[in-house]
Input
Amino acid sequence: MLKVAVMVSGGGTNLQAILDAIDAGRITNAKVVRVISNSTKAFALERARKAGIETACITRKQYPDPERFDQALLELLRESGADLVVLAGCLVVIPQCVVDAFPNRIINIHPALIPSFCGTGYYGLKVHEQALARGVKVTGATVHFVDGGTDTGPIILQKAVEVQQGDTPEVLQRRVMEQAEWVILPQAIHLIANEKIRVEGGRVIFKE
Output
């Protein structure tokens, strides 16, 4: 059974998609053991409590020394016994010590088709604002492993979403979540939990 720790910063819609997929059997051989947030006000924590999942909150204000924050976060993850760390709308830059401790065991959902509209500064609504400003006709979401860069790790899954005339960033954001993020993030967890993928030469390979 794959033990999953989910890191969140806001409402937790991707967390809910994971929990719903586990309940529906679309994710097998996995369970969420802890939900960690960098905000005490994150509604995701309430979602986790309702599901009977252990929660924790850690903020940089608690640890003025960046290294102490990094180590405290690493300890929280280790204490959870997690085999996989899922960044589900998490706005915390993952420290290198955490990346090193969980090689190819941290995944992130990004609201665009990497390598488009990704990297430093591209998060949340900003991604969709830039996609609309550029006039792209197709956008989507990407699940990837986390490495030492920003949105540079091996890509696991992508799903395209059509941009429609008259879209606002908010409308497009919702469509990407519903049609892509909430679909491929659970799929990626299911693949990992059932040992269906491996990383080779910086790329994700699907096993037969």
User: Anything to note?
Assistant: The beta strands are 2-8, 30-37, 54-57, 84-87, 106-110, 138-145, 155-162, 197-200, 203-206. The CA atoms of residues 120 and 160 lie 22 Å apart. The helical segments are 13-24, 43-50, 66-80, 96-101, 125-134, 169-193.
